[in-house]
User: Fold this.
Amino acid sequence: MTVLTIVIYAVFGVAALLTLWRIVRGPSILDRAVASDVLLTEVMCVLGAEMAINHHTRTLPVLLIIAAVGVFGSISIARFVARRDNNDR
Assistant:
């Protein structure tokens, strides 16, 4: 492993820890939803970086599944929050 690879993984690791902290601490459901989207994006970036470093495309289906989970999760949370806001009025 090169020094650059170690630095890349370290930066992604710190970003993931900070994102997990935001998921745990909140304070609102929307903050947690945004943080979970950021975490999924970070995982996708790590997998993409690993693919580029090792010159392969074997994890491309995993990237597509993670992207779909992120999109559907965001839509579900947005609908939940919109429905909750309508009930409060």
